[in-house]
Amino acid sequence: MAQVHLLLNQKGGVGKSTLTVNLAAITADVIARPDRQVPPVLAVSIDPQGSATWWADRVGDDLPFDFVQAHREPQELSRLKEIDGYEHIFVDTPGWIGPDADDDGVEDRDPLGDGRAGVALRAVLEAADDVIVPIEPEGLGFLPTANTIENVVKPRGIPYTVVINNWDPRDGTADLDETKAFIDGQQFHRAQTVVRHYKIHTRAAVENRVVTQYPRNRISLEAREDFFRLALELGLGGTRRQRKGAGRAAK
Ligand SMILES: Nc1ncnc2c1ncn2[C@@H]1O[C@H](COP(=O)(O)OP(=O)(O)O)[C@@H](O)[C@H]1O
Ligand SMILES: [Mg+2]
Predict the structure, then answer these.
(1) CA 249 – CA 251 distance, rounded (Å)
(2) Which end of the chain has the lower number of beta carbons within 10 A, N or C?
(3) Which atom of ligand 1 is nearest to the CA of 19?
(4) 197 lines ligand 1 (CB under 6 A)
């Protein structure tokens, strides 16, 4: 059975889609086997805005992993793990409006809301083996990140890792240190790896590339390294031994 990794943060623009496609690319790059036609990695977008889809349309056939925009029923989304043939499934999710945003003074029963997006989110949370929570080194993202973890992830008991993304070394370390201090102060599990800001990541989304397809120059390789480090830290590249009789038969 596939491991399902959910990219989640109620705040938009923090790197959910960027991490989804690039972690999928790195993982596929490492574990793909030449004797298999089918890539071992699937990326799923449940973002109704379809930013990752927009993006995947443009990389087209060169994409090193399979990609689907899920228009599926919640029951199917919650059974993602059972899709045959994949070892890792990365799920890109949309942000959502938290309970603090509607200002009606009544705390909503469910922070994910009752709309289509909320229903889809609840379904993929059911399927998730772990959650990756990107955060930018920027104070505005602290509260939404804390809400995401405290109200959505922790109550479900899903293991999670907060990943600092889009740190520009030219800005110095003050914001980075403050962000680390915030995450550690909340006792959230934090990845050591920080994904740095590189123009090539921003450009890649319009230039039809994932990190494994970047040109082989020094800057691109540096930019790519962050994703390899992160994938290593998250344990994505290992070959799992199947328990006898469980899941697909090993061939
Ligand atoms: N490490 C990074 N370096 C440069 N640009 C980045 C980086 N991470 C994200 N971006 C850019 O920031 C914007 C928001 O990222 P995105 O992945 O779309 O966030 P989300 O899916 O959480 O809304 C995009 O334009 C993306 O290309
Ligand atoms: Mg997105």
Answers:
(1) 6
(2) C
(3) 17
(4) yes
